[in-house]
Design a protein that fits this description.
This protein is mainly alpha-helical. It is built from 17 helices and no strands. Helix 16 (230-237) crosses helix 17 (245-252).
Length: 267
């Protein structure tokens, strides 16, 4: 069977690839990498986003068209048709499950990954390899790799669907949040989990604490504070390194002139 031509079979294999070993997993991952790196090999997105590709990404190299669509979704969400948006979100979530599917991260983090996280690729948990890079961020030698990893963490802080390990460990609790009417994106699901931390399943709570710890270390991966306190960060902490920005905010929260720029949402 030609996997490239059988979309239904490829989707089935892709959904269960973490359970495969040896040549089968390697073959599926190879095809998946091609789909994530070049639109010519991505029939699913090409079909769902045909109008957007023709009107908004016309003339863009096929290797950059997926990035073009993602930028549209982030900046001008209304420009994406519902079907295109849904399929594109699915691809972003799948990419979050493996370093192998993230071209830039895989490239700039190759040496650090081999040194620190090579064994993680053998684990069956979706996102285990990326989680290893996140957990090892303080040991990363490459500045480009660290920047890329922080970028992934920032994206997951905004949209928890892009944190594969959190999805894996907190599936039941996230379902309860969505059933209660909490919509994905803009940090809402992550905030919901934080508010019910004491009631979470132990594995979920442990995974969430990793996220909370990272957010306390670096404002760049703390979407809630970055958005709510944008004015304050610019006014008081523009010259402070990101790692010290939260401390800078705390220092000025009680300042006599803080009220002049404070946002109602800033904690």
């Amino acid at each position: 069977v030609d996997l490239m031509e059988d979309d239904a079979l490829l989707r089935c294999l892709r959904e269960h690839r973490a359970l495969f070993t040896g040549g089968c997993r390697a073959k599926v991952m190879s095809i998946e990498r091609m789909a994530h790196n070049e639109m010519d090999f991505n029939a699913e997105v090409s079909e769902a986003c045909a109008v957007e590709l023709r009107t908004q990404c016309r003339g863009v190299d096929s290797r950059q068209q997926l990035s073009c669509l993602e930028r549209m979704g982030e900046v001008r969400a209304a420009k994406l048709a519902p079907t295109c948006s849904r399929v594109l979100q699915g691809f972003k979530e799948r990419a979050a499950q493996s370093v192998e599917l993230m071209g830039k991260v895989s490239s700039v983090c190759r040496e650090d990954y081999e040194l620190l996280c090579a064994s993680a690729s053998a684990l069956q948990h979706p996102g285990a390899s990326i989680q290893c890079l996140k957990d090892s961020r303080g040991q990363l030698r490459s500045k480009d790799c660290k920047a890329a990893v922080l970028g992934l963490m920032a994206g997951a802080s905004r949209d928890s669907r892009l944190d594969a390990m959190l999805q894996s460990q907190c599936g039941r609790d996230l379902f309860e949040c969505t059933r209660a009417g909490v919509l994905p994106g803009e940090g809402r699901l992550l905030k919901c989990l934080k508010e019910k931390l004491s009631k979470l399943q132990p594995s979920c709570a442990a995974q969430l604490r990793k996220t909370v710890h990272a957010e306390a270390e670096d404002v760049r991966v703390n979407f809630e504070v970055s958005k709510a306190c944008e004015a304050e960060l610019h006014h008081y902490c523009a010259s402070v390194k990101p790692e010290g920005a939260l401390g800078c905010l705390e220092l000025h929260l009680g300042g006599s002139d803080f009220w002049r720029v404070v946002s109602a949402e800033c904690p």
